[in-house]
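Intended use. Records like the one below are meant for learning the mapping from a protein sequence to its folded structure. Do not use them to infer anything beyond what is encoded.
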Amino acid sequence: MEPNRLTALDAARAIAAGRLSATDLMEACLARAAEREGVVHAFVHLDRGLARRAATRARPGPLSGLPFGVKDVLDTADMPTGYGSPIWAGHRPRGDSAVVAAARAAGAVIMGKTVTTEFATRNPGPTTNPHNPAHTPGGSSSGSAAAVADFMLPLAFGTQTAGSIIRPAAYCGVVGFKPSYGSLHRGGMKVCSEGLDTIGVMARSVADCGLAIGAMTGMPMDPEAKLSRPPRLGLSFGQAPEAAAPETVARLHEVAEAARRAGAEVVEFALPPALEEAAALHAHMMNMETRQALAWEWAVARAEISPVLRERLEWAEAQPAEKLLESRVAAKAARAAFLDATQGLDAILTPSAPAEAPEGLGYTGDATFNLLWTLLWGPNVTIPAGTGPKGLPLGVQLVGRIGEDAGLLATARWVQAAIG
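Structure written out for the chain above:
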């Protein structure tokens, strides 16, 4: 197998055993990027000389020698960080963001900066879906999802405020993991929503996500941990079941049935009213906090903000200040209600996105099946689950309880094995 097609865990083991060098792995990833970047446009900055030099200096550690993509809302000391906005074009941070520093300390080699939508909101960049370039890769972590899916690198950072890890990972057919809120420190990140923004990772296996998160946080995270028994899953279409396309509905039920055949108990999960109320206020929290975060840009460079973001910020500015407090109170109540309602469940099984990736690059997709689970602050993971009628990937999502990240990943690996 070509080195760039190895999972992160397999590549790490090959490097540790001396069967593969960090430089050979980087060369394979750079070669793939050279072959495909003209179509996929996953990177906003890729300095091949810098990547090669970094590979020769890879530190020992659990991620030693593994190429890592960095979403361009995370600061890097040796590469520009533009936050997907012309306002910040050419910006050179003095230091690394906390997560980039953690990845480097664990031995990862930063390969380049991946495309993000503007400030990780809606306005898209040029990235295409590697399965069909006429379709979006999703957003806002567009470049990270596409680069991992197209075998340009094994690991990449994403961030999520509504669905910006889970949805693009599902659209591109890879694994996306949003850990519990705050698991990866946001220092040096262009934060937009203080109460929602969460850093996570994308990879080509669930085990790779556990490897990366464990390496960067120091938390016990056996990437290949197995459940001691079949899981108990709650089946849910969230607060807007009507948004799911027929193929999404059918596939989720097929996955649930496969899990049952493998020994899992799958029960219908009735959404507590507190969760529906919080979901209805998600837009207030997200947009009003983003308006606060972009106060400087709004004051001095408003003309360089895209029309779609300006519209959202104008809407946020027009809302009563009390609405933000109301949304925060509702989110807190929803978290408590979710913990009560999921006693005895290992995870919620739910769609990752309404359907396959939409056609066109002007719209990165609908976060309906992500926003509720994001505001609950627990871990979310999407795993590939076949393809839809247009031949593009579908994913299913598993949602866990705050702090139960390792257990959720083990459950995801179990479900993935059950569906084959």
